Design the sequence.
């Protein structure tokens, strides 16, 4: 090779005698993990329509509440009003929450109950408006006719599918040229756009909402799925709510309060606690006061990945897409993210009208969230 008189550090990378030093790996800094979708796993079945439906049912309720504030003498007040008289039958033993007194229902007129106070030798106690009444069970008369049949109506619940799309275009020159770090530009673009679509799917599964009118979609209305957060209404708690543990910092009292409320109102088995990065650090601090290390330990561990309580064993999932002020508690066995049949993420080649190759990545998915009372949500947590 002829002498050029130049030092290698001043020659740059344009001279033929110097090879380019470029890694064959392309680094991606943008977050694209989908921890919730990974935890839920693949759905058991596909959606068969743009409006995906499922059936839900419930047992007859065994509690109600007093709706009467006209008490004078506990022993003399044998009639009182409840919210839903249809939940009771003559012969029911009932007990007010927080009371040791038993009562026996002897008559029902719309929402007014006539009862025997101090039943079974118990002592009559004061009753209060809004006090919860538990129905222990019914005592039938021997030889009596069958009581009137009672039943619940199954309800049809549903969610709409949402179409996710990404367009890919690669010029003929780019297709033919040798690329650094990849073998095929079209394949690389497919991978990148698919990562984006999976990221957006998880974000929508958590936070998505539906249009107020025409949720089925039209030529001018975009059809979108309702996410988990928007589905929940029964067990949604805000810091500052009456009865909810005080303070805005996420702690064990708040987690256990929600787990207990779900356990009391449903047979849901919460097994996932989903939080963002800030709230995950709060959960890690649950055991900070009792954490010990040996004299020779050189590794400091400050992480809680499983929370075991009286109401179930919960895996902690950290996702970037849950709002910072929220903690989501779900029963993963009741949540699915099914695609519309034949519409899971796939690439559709399109006709080219020039010197380029093009196509579209398409997927259509929805969220199937059964029994929303089996899940819980905490909002307005501190974020600093």
Sequence:
């Amino acid at each position: 090779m002829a002498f050029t008189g130049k030092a290698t550090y001043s020659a740059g990378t344009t001279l033929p005698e110097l090879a380019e030093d470029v890694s064959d790996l392309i680094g991606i800094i943008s977050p694209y993990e989908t921890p919730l979708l990974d935890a839920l796993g693949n759905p058991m079945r596909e959606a068969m329509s743009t409006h995906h439906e499922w059936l839900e049912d419930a047992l007859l309720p065994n509690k109600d509440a007093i709706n009467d504030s006209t008490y004078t003498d506990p022993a003399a007040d044998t009639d009182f009003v409840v919210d839903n008289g249809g939940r009771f039958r003559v012969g029911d033993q009932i007990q007010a929450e927080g009371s040791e007194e038993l009562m026996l229902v002897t008559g029902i007129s719309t929402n007014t109950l006539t009862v025997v106070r101090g039943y079974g030798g118990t002592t009559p106690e004061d009753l209060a408006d809004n006090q919860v009444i538990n129905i222990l069970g019914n005592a039938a008369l021997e030889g009596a006719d069958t009581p009137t049949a009672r039943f619940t109506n199954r309800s049809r619940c549903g969610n709409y599918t949402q179409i996710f799309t990404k367009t890919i275009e690669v010029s003929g020159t780019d297709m033919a040229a040798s690329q650094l770090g990849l073998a095929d530009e079209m394949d690389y673009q497919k991978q990148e756009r698919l990562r984006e679509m999976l990221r957006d799917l998880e974000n929508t599964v958590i936070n998505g909402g539906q249009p107020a009118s025409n949720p089925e979609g039209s030529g001018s209305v975009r059809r979108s799925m309702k996410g988990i957060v928007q589905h929940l209404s029964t067990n949604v708690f805000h810091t500052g709510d009456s009865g909810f543990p005080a303070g805005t910092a996420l702690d064990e009292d708040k987690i256990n309060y929600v787990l207990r409320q779900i356990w009391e109102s449903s047979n849901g088995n919460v097994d996932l606690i989903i939080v963002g990065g800030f709230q995950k650090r709060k959960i890690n601090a649950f055991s900070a006061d009792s954490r010990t290390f040996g004299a020779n330990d050189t590794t400091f561990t400050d992480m809680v990945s499983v929370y075991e309580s009286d109401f179930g064993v919960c895996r902690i999932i950290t996702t970037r897409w849950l709002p910072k002020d929220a903690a989501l508690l779900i029963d993963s066995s009741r949540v699915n993210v099914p695609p519309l049949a034949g519409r899971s993420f796939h690439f559709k080649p399109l006709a080219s009208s020039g010197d380029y190759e093009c196509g579209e990545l398409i997927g259509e998915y929805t969220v199937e969230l059964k029994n929303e009372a089996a899940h819980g949500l905490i909002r307005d947590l501190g974020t600093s």
Summary: The radius of gyration is 31 Å. Residues 35-56+156-212+221-286+302-379 form one domain. The mean pLDDT is 88. The longest helix spans residues 185-207.
